[in-house]
Specification:
Elements (H helix, E strand, L loop, with lengths): L21 E8 L2 E2 L3 E4 L10 H5 L2 E3 L2 E5 L5 E3 L2 H14 L7 H14 L13 E10 L12 E10 L9 E3 L5 E3 L22
Antiparallel strand pairs: 1-2, 1-3, 1-8, 4-7, 5-6, 5-7, 7-8, 9-10
Length: about 200
Protein backbone atom coordinates (compact mmCIF):
# COMPACT_ATOMS: atom_id res chain seq x y z
CA UNK A 1 0.00 0.00 0.00
CA UNK A 2 1.36 3.42 -0.95
CA UNK A 3 2.40 5.76 1.85
CA UNK A 4 -0.16 8.51 2.51
CA UNK A 5 0.50 11.89 0.97
CA UNK A 6 0.96 14.94 3.15
CA UNK A 7 -1.89 17.41 2.81
CA UNK A 8 -2.15 20.98 4.03
CA UNK A 9 -5.24 23.17 4.37
CA UNK A 10 -7.70 20.55 3.16
CA UNK A 11 -11.23 21.79 2.57
CA UNK A 12 -14.48 20.21 1.48
CA UNK A 13 -13.70 20.81 -2.17
CA UNK A 14 -12.43 18.97 -5.23
CA UNK A 15 -8.73 18.17 -4.98
CA UNK A 16 -6.74 20.83 -6.91
CA UNK A 17 -5.08 18.16 -9.08
CA UNK A 18 -7.84 15.60 -9.63
CA UNK A 19 -6.03 14.08 -12.62
CA UNK A 20 -3.59 12.55 -10.10
CA UNK A 21 -6.40 10.52 -8.53
CA UNK A 22 -8.08 7.39 -9.84
CA UNK A 23 -11.72 6.84 -10.79
CA UNK A 24 -13.87 3.83 -11.57
CA UNK A 25 -16.23 3.67 -14.54
CA UNK A 26 -18.58 1.05 -15.94
CA UNK A 27 -21.08 1.23 -18.80
CA UNK A 28 -24.50 -0.36 -19.17
CA UNK A 29 -25.33 -1.19 -22.79
CA UNK A 30 -27.43 -3.87 -24.49
CA UNK A 31 -29.02 -4.83 -21.20
CA UNK A 32 -25.88 -5.53 -19.16
CA UNK A 33 -23.08 -3.84 -17.22
CA UNK A 34 -19.50 -4.28 -18.39
CA UNK A 35 -16.79 -5.27 -15.91
CA UNK A 36 -15.70 -1.67 -15.41
CA UNK A 37 -12.19 -0.35 -14.93
CA UNK A 38 -10.11 2.00 -12.80
CA UNK A 39 -8.27 4.79 -14.61
CA UNK A 40 -6.98 8.26 -13.89
CA UNK A 41 -9.58 10.96 -13.34
CA UNK A 42 -10.62 12.37 -16.71
CA UNK A 43 -13.43 14.35 -18.39
CA UNK A 44 -16.49 12.43 -19.54
CA UNK A 45 -17.78 12.50 -23.10
CA UNK A 46 -21.53 12.98 -23.36
CA UNK A 47 -23.82 13.65 -26.31
CA UNK A 48 -25.75 16.95 -26.17
CA UNK A 49 -28.95 14.88 -26.10
CA UNK A 50 -27.81 12.61 -23.25
CA UNK A 51 -30.68 11.85 -20.89
CA UNK A 52 -28.88 13.24 -17.83
CA UNK A 53 -28.39 16.63 -19.52
CA UNK A 54 -31.96 16.94 -20.78
CA UNK A 55 -34.08 15.16 -18.20
CA UNK A 56 -31.84 14.83 -15.15
CA UNK A 57 -31.85 11.04 -14.97
CA UNK A 58 -29.04 10.57 -12.49
CA UNK A 59 -28.25 9.51 -8.92
CA UNK A 60 -25.31 9.83 -6.53
CA UNK A 61 -23.94 8.80 -3.15
CA UNK A 62 -21.41 10.28 -0.76
CA UNK A 63 -18.98 8.06 1.18
CA UNK A 64 -15.77 8.45 3.16
CA UNK A 65 -12.70 6.29 3.72
CA UNK A 66 -10.61 6.93 6.86
CA UNK A 67 -7.06 6.05 7.82
CA UNK A 68 -6.78 4.65 11.35
CA UNK A 69 -3.94 5.16 13.82
CA UNK A 70 -2.45 1.79 12.80
CA UNK A 71 -2.54 2.81 9.11
CA UNK A 72 -5.56 0.68 8.15
CA UNK A 73 -8.17 2.14 5.77
CA UNK A 74 -11.76 1.73 6.89
CA UNK A 75 -15.25 2.80 5.82
CA UNK A 76 -18.54 3.10 7.67
CA UNK A 77 -21.39 0.84 6.51
CA UNK A 78 -20.67 0.85 2.74
CA UNK A 79 -23.29 -1.86 2.33
CA UNK A 80 -25.96 0.67 3.34
CA UNK A 81 -24.79 3.01 0.58
CA UNK A 82 -24.95 0.09 -1.84
CA UNK A 83 -28.55 -0.61 -0.87
CA UNK A 84 -29.59 3.01 -1.21
CA UNK A 85 -27.80 3.34 -4.55
CA UNK A 86 -29.73 0.33 -5.87
CA UNK A 87 -32.96 1.82 -4.51
CA UNK A 88 -32.17 5.16 -6.13
CA UNK A 89 -31.78 3.35 -9.47
CA UNK A 90 -35.28 1.95 -9.12
CA UNK A 91 -36.73 5.31 -8.08
CA UNK A 92 -35.27 6.93 -11.20
CA UNK A 93 -36.22 4.01 -13.53
CA UNK A 94 -32.54 3.29 -14.20
CA UNK A 95 -30.62 0.06 -14.76
CA UNK A 96 -29.96 -1.29 -11.28
CA UNK A 97 -26.35 -1.34 -10.11
CA UNK A 98 -26.06 -4.63 -8.18
CA UNK A 99 -24.94 -4.17 -4.59
CA UNK A 100 -22.01 -6.56 -5.09
CA UNK A 101 -20.82 -4.57 -8.11
CA UNK A 102 -21.14 -1.31 -6.20
CA UNK A 103 -19.14 -2.61 -3.22
CA UNK A 104 -16.39 -4.08 -5.40
CA UNK A 105 -16.14 -0.82 -7.34
CA UNK A 106 -15.85 1.12 -4.09
CA UNK A 107 -13.12 -1.23 -2.83
CA UNK A 108 -11.18 -1.03 -6.10
CA UNK A 109 -11.42 2.76 -6.07
CA UNK A 110 -10.23 3.08 -2.47
CA UNK A 111 -7.32 0.69 -3.03
CA UNK A 112 -6.23 2.59 -6.14
CA UNK A 113 -6.37 5.87 -4.20
CA UNK A 114 -4.80 4.63 -0.95
CA UNK A 115 -2.14 7.36 -0.98
CA UNK A 116 -4.91 9.99 -1.04
CA UNK A 117 -6.50 8.81 2.22
CA UNK A 118 -5.26 11.49 4.66
CA UNK A 119 -3.72 10.84 8.03
CA UNK A 120 -5.93 12.29 10.73
CA UNK A 121 -5.92 12.35 14.50
CA UNK A 122 -9.53 13.29 15.09
CA UNK A 123 -11.39 11.86 12.11
CA UNK A 124 -11.85 15.26 10.50
CA UNK A 125 -9.93 14.33 7.32
CA UNK A 126 -10.93 11.56 4.94
CA UNK A 127 -11.04 10.44 1.33
CA UNK A 128 -14.44 11.40 -0.03
CA UNK A 129 -15.97 9.09 -2.63
CA UNK A 130 -18.73 10.21 -4.96
CA UNK A 131 -20.45 7.26 -6.72
CA UNK A 132 -22.65 8.48 -9.60
CA UNK A 133 -24.91 6.83 -12.17
CA UNK A 134 -26.32 8.76 -15.12
CA UNK A 135 -28.42 8.10 -18.20
CA UNK A 136 -26.18 8.67 -21.22
CA UNK A 137 -28.37 7.55 -24.11
CA UNK A 138 -28.90 10.43 -26.57
CA UNK A 139 -32.61 10.83 -27.16
CA UNK A 140 -35.36 13.37 -27.58
CA UNK A 141 -38.41 12.40 -25.58
CA UNK A 142 -39.30 11.93 -21.93
CA UNK A 143 -38.44 8.30 -21.26
CA UNK A 144 -35.87 6.27 -19.36
CA UNK A 145 -32.51 5.80 -21.04
CA UNK A 146 -31.28 2.40 -22.19
CA UNK A 147 -27.61 3.24 -21.65
CA UNK A 148 -25.95 4.28 -18.38
CA UNK A 149 -22.60 5.20 -16.90
CA UNK A 150 -21.71 4.28 -13.33
CA UNK A 151 -18.58 5.98 -12.04
CA UNK A 152 -16.83 6.90 -8.80
CA UNK A 153 -14.40 9.76 -8.31
CA UNK A 154 -12.60 10.81 -5.13
CA UNK A 155 -11.14 13.78 -3.32
CA UNK A 156 -9.20 14.03 -0.05
CA UNK A 157 -11.07 16.46 2.17
CA UNK A 158 -11.69 18.00 5.55
CA UNK A 159 -15.09 17.96 7.28
CA UNK A 160 -17.88 19.88 5.50
CA UNK A 161 -18.20 22.03 8.61
CA UNK A 162 -16.49 21.34 11.90
CA UNK A 163 -19.75 21.75 13.80
CA UNK A 164 -21.28 18.92 11.73
CA UNK A 165 -19.12 16.46 13.64
CA UNK A 166 -21.23 17.17 16.70
CA UNK A 167 -24.22 15.38 15.23
CA UNK A 168 -25.08 11.89 14.14
CA UNK A 169 -28.16 10.72 12.29
CA UNK A 170 -30.17 7.59 12.92
CA UNK A 171 -32.74 6.37 10.38
CA UNK A 172 -35.01 8.33 8.04
CA UNK A 173 -34.60 12.06 8.44
CA UNK A 174 -34.58 12.23 12.23
CA UNK A 175 -31.53 14.03 13.67
CA UNK A 176 -30.24 12.82 17.02
CA UNK A 177 -28.04 15.50 18.58
CA UNK A 178 -25.01 14.31 20.50
CA UNK A 179 -24.43 17.65 22.20
CA UNK A 180 -27.41 19.82 21.26
CA UNK A 181 -30.34 19.81 18.85
CA UNK A 182 -29.33 20.11 15.20
CA UNK A 183 -30.35 23.39 13.54
CA UNK A 184 -32.88 23.35 10.70
CA UNK A 185 -30.22 23.89 8.03
CA UNK A 186 -28.53 20.63 9.04
CA UNK A 187 -31.59 18.37 8.84
CA UNK A 188 -31.46 17.85 5.04
CA UNK A 189 -28.06 16.18 5.52
CA UNK A 190 -29.74 13.19 7.18
CA UNK A 191 -30.04 9.87 5.37
CA UNK A 192 -32.83 9.75 2.80
CA UNK A 193 -34.28 6.74 0.91
CA UNK A 194 -32.82 7.88 -2.43
CA UNK A 195 -30.25 10.42 -3.62
CA UNK A 196 -31.19 11.72 -7.06
CA UNK A 197 -29.53 14.31 -9.28
CA UNK A 198 -32.64 16.49 -9.24
CA UNK A 199 -33.43 16.18 -5.51
Amino acid sequence: MAAPRKFENLKFALYPNPEETWMFESYYRNGDWDAGKVSHYHPLQLAPAANILNYGQGIFEGMKAYRTADNAIVMFRPEENAKRFANSCEVMAMARVPEEKFLQAVKDTVVANAEFVPETGDGSHSLYLRPVCIGIEPQLGVKAAKEYLFYIYVSPKAAILRRCRRYRFIGGQTPIAQRRMAPDWLKPLATTPAACARS
